Amino acid sequence: MSNVELTYHENIVPYDRNELLNRLNHALRKPRYEHVVRVEQMAIKLAKLNDVDVEKASIGGLVHDYAKQRPAQDFIDAIKKYHLDKTLLDYGNAIWHGYVGWIFVKKELGIQDIDVLNAVKHHTIGAKHMTKLEQIVYMADYIEMGRQFPNVDKARKVTFDNLQNGVAYQTKHTLDYLIQNNKQVFPKMIDTYNAWVPKSNIK
Ligand SMILES: [Fe+2]
Ligand SMILES: [Fe+2]
């Protein structure tokens, strides 16, 4: 699983990849840890296809779910401490682990790179403007090789053919899923939808 041979040179994390893996291993239970390693592998593949920095893709893929298994109170405290939008309190871990979780990635993992932090922040709900790295982490999380949902192969093909179309595809289908299942929609997801889906030609 973690057989990616990659030596970090860019000082985005102030330690090596093995130490980052160690930290994730402590923060996450086994299935989630294995997921982030698969996301890393997919992110590296997408980075190579799209001319994006492989080290950033590796780190973004690995850390995107760093905060996924923290207690709710950690997020509630952070929302208050850092004076984040109070309406965040109406949501839960599904939104918080990215949209608030990037703060823990910054403080605890020592990552300052804004592109990596935004990739964590936006990996679940997307954003109106996303850099290629953000798009890659958003998509790698959706199509990593452990994912099994109807049309996952189509989602992979669309994404390998064109990263932006992949973003549109995921955004459309996730929103559709939330609505079909009477789930909460975080308002910023609508911004993501409006920015990416109407201009695309995906089905
Ligand atoms: Fe996530
Ligand atoms: Fe994830």
UniProtKB/TrEMBL annotation:
It is an enzyme of class 3 (hydrolase). It comes from the Bacteria. Keywords: Hydrolase, Iron, Metal-binding, Nucleotide-binding. GO terms for molecular function: bis(5'-nucleosyl)-tetraphosphatase (symmetrical) activity; metal ion binding; nucleotide binding. It catalyses: P(1),P(4)-bis(5'-adenosyl) tetraphosphate + H2O = 2 ADP + 2 H(+). It holds the Pfam family HD. Residues 32-146 form the HD domain. Coiled coil: none annotated. PROSITE patterns: HD. Its EC number is 3.6.1.41. This is bis(5'-nucleosyl)-tetraphosphatase (symmetrical). The lineage of its organism: Bacteria, Bacillati, Bacillota, Bacilli, Lactobacillales.
